[in-house]
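Can't attach files on this board, so I'm pasting raw text. These are the components:
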Amino acid sequence: MSCCAAAGMNPTQLQETATKLEHLEQEQIKLLSIALADGRYKTEFVVPDMHCAACIAKIEHALAKLNFVEEVRANLSFKTVSVIWQANKGTIVEATKTLKGMGFENHVADEVSSPDHAKEAKSLLLALAIAGFAAANIMLLSVSVWSGADAETAKLFHLISGLIAIPTVAFSGRPFFYSALKAITGKRLNMDVPISLAVILAVGMSVYESLTGGKEAYFDASVTLLFFLLIGRYLDLLMRNKARGAVARLSSISAKDGVLVTEDDGLRHLALKDIRPGMILRVFAGERFPVNGQVIKGQSDLDRSHVTGESATVFVETGHLVEAGTLNLTAPIDIEAVTDAQGSFLAEMRRMMEAAEKGRSNYIRIADRMAQIYAPAVHLLALIAFIGWMIWTGGDWHISLYTAIAVLIVTCPCALGLAVPVAHVLGANRLMSEGIMMRDGTGLERLAEVDTVIFDKTGTLTTGQAKVMSATNLNSSFMPVLRGLAASSHHPSARAVYQYLTETEQVELTNISEVPGYGMEALYKGKKVRLGRKNWVMEITDEYSQLDDQFTVAFALENGPAIGFVIIDSVRKDAAETIQSIGVIGLDQQILSGDNVVKVSSLARQLQIETFFSNYTPGEKLCHIERLRDDGRRVLMVGDGINDAPALAGGHASMAPASAADVGRHSADFVFTRTMLGAVPFSIQTARFTSKIVRQNFSLAIAYNCIAVPLAMAGFVTPLVAAIAMSASSIAVVSNSMRINFVRRDHNHRSRISPQDISLKEPYT
Amino acid sequence: MNHLLLLIPIALGLGLLGLIAFFWSLKAGQYDDLNGAAERILLDD
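---
Top answer:
Structure tokens for the assembled complex are below.
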């Protein structure tokens, strides 16, 4: 083996690379931060495992101690920590490291969130506050009228109520009026049509009544109606924004950008969209390839698990092609970009994903399905009431119209408007408190309907990290040397050996070099030591002891004894338990993997999953899911890789771990941030319970209508009755929804995460 | 009875005051972290 020295790196080079990497990482974080005056930046970190006062104190104190940090504030509701820091005093990368050191996994939040949604939420909140103010005041005036004010006072109070109600309805009612107008011009009916009609007619009629000295006015009912409905609408929007934000913010900082090698061998940071074919890019160990390319300098091992699902590493050297999204493990290499970002493997996956997502966009939310039946029914009832009374009274349009308005107001979907959003918000909050984030509000509805769960293997059922299962000839006198050697590599096998020997001390070695494709080599007391591929390691020793095929990695001292390791992709700790509890719920389970048949079948056997498929390409995965869908099955896809992204988008619902590739995480409905796979059955249970609550809420609302509508049509509903009935039904629906807060995890391993549970995600260190 | 009419603008004014107070507290970020505020009681700085 003589080829190796050139590719390997000596310690000073390693140090230099580390500093360079840190600098680049700092630049990337700056891109995600808000620049303040005087070279200060505001960066937000997402810290999913922060859950108590002690965590807040620990994080705030530790970060405040760093000399470049000016201000730090933890937010427990959103699990974020915002830091204001001076760029010239230190590097913010220290902050991520400090958090990691304390056992808090963290991501840098993408601050570039869309301001549109925030603006929409703000204007809705303004409308809500004004409606609330008006409703309270009008209700006060109405109470005095109902409790027997004399005619003069009643008239005055009605006028004041009118003066408050008219501008309020004009302002706060706009979201409904616009939506109703849009529906009518599109020749459709939605819930907002009867709402708008009821509110406008009620206010108009009441103004006429007040001016002509009538006894009753519906000002309070119309404003309270708006108030309740705005609450529902606001909650709905808030949840959608929060969910969207939470997932978008997780965007990891790797592989978004490239590092350009300029002609004078300098390095320059380059945004992904500016990469063009023919550019020379350097990809460091621990980084992902931004685009497809061809290796022109260097050798390295690649982790392709996100791209193909295979867990074994692949060796590349000059001339080999690499795909975007692949992780570079051992040494920096230069590639010539073959495509730009649009033409890369990643972009191709994204296109497949979008196509697959179209199928899902046909899904109609349960609230809208209800509206399709409900809105015409309400109009019909009001019309029947009007015509009926016209005939009955022989053409008294005043009383007839009044009854029709009463019907519209009473049937108005206060409870219906609250039934879904309240339940969904509480469901999403419940999931969030277990570290599960929801991207899409309809996700809960769809998740509740699934009957088949499909798991990806690498990175989903397994952690995607190699682990030493067993070792042979482990001689304690060599362990410090072995650990010293393993410490200096990013390669998963070396990390695994390093983790395996945590109890051991570590010695400094000289002349450490890494030979991509083979392993590590160094000098110890003048003798060569090697850790790596078995055949290569055995070259330096005669002692070809009984290491059979299962030992893929070995360690040897020159002419000394050899130690063999069995390295496997470690299964997630609670995988077996999870599979079992999903089985108990009664769902069919399958494994769909891009890895080879031996690995997939052994895992399937271990977890007792009967149906499994191996060697699947991303397209085949999607096909498989579409076939199941055509068979009438509703599939929950759980996966993490780039190769799973189309399948995630194609599933009826989908989940991904936070460690997933960006593109996968963005196409998943749910993202779980803790290492436990138990999030899957818990989410399914919560979703099912939530949709049960939603159905109960609808039943409550309908039962209420069954009583109220006949009364209204018979003309018994006065403004007082309407006010009480409306509030009562809303309260019933909201309190029923509160029960979602009490969904418990089945088995009691609420993951209070201890530092050793948080496995190293990516070899960033 | 007439002097009671004075109460109406007072009631409306108080309501308006509450509305303004709400907007102020919203702007001051008092609703940004409800869970955190509950837990921070336990910290002594």
